[in-house]
Amino acid sequence: YAAGDLPKLMQPLAINILGVSLQLSFLTCYWYYATEKDDLVSCRRAFFGGAFIVVVAFAVCESMHSFEPFGDFAMVMNIIMYYSPLAAFATVVREKSVARMPLAPLVLTLVCSLLWLTYGYMIRDVPIMTPNACGVLLGIAQLSVYAYFSIYYGTKRPDDVEANATAEANEQQRLINSA
């Protein structure tokens, strides 16, 4: 188990610090350039909600004199993060388009999960392997959904999807009015 071996922990720690820094920079840029009120509200909630969770987690771990629950919480959050692109699944099915489900993040998440799973296996660290095994399985599921809809329905731009939805709504309204 890597927790007792500081050199084994330094690499994941450094990589995760870099990851958090990149995520915070993305959130900051998104917040700065967001024009819609809903986007600004969502961004604030994500930022302050995340900060609140980290502070509470540290307080709980300090009171228990152990940071193991913090690692368990991080594992659960990783699994949720790997699952989150499937939230676009309903939109993909409804629009019969993968336009709102970008391929690059799906592929990169799968590759990242595979690399971390391999690393966890090599150092025999179950807390690293567990969320990344879920990430591999969910990544395969997400890419399968993407492949299915790309093959059978093609890829449509979001503009095309919205234009088709508007045209269908107008046609339905015309039929209702003519009846």
TrEMBL record:
GO terms for molecular function: sugar transmembrane transporter activity. Pfam families: MtN3_slv. It is a multi-pass membrane protein. The keyword Methyltransferase does not apply. The keyword Membrane applies. The chain crosses the membrane at residues 13-34, 46-67, 73-91, 103-122, 128-149. Keywords: Cell membrane, Golgi apparatus, Membrane, Repeat, Sugar transport, Transmembrane, Transmembrane helix, Transport. Gene3D superfamilies: 1.20.1280.290. It is found in: Cell membrane; Golgi apparatus membrane. One of its GO terms (cellular component) is Golgi membrane. Its main location: membrane. Belongs to the SWEET sugar transporter family. Mediates both low-affinity uptake and efflux of sugar across the plasma membrane. This is Sugar transporter SWEET1.
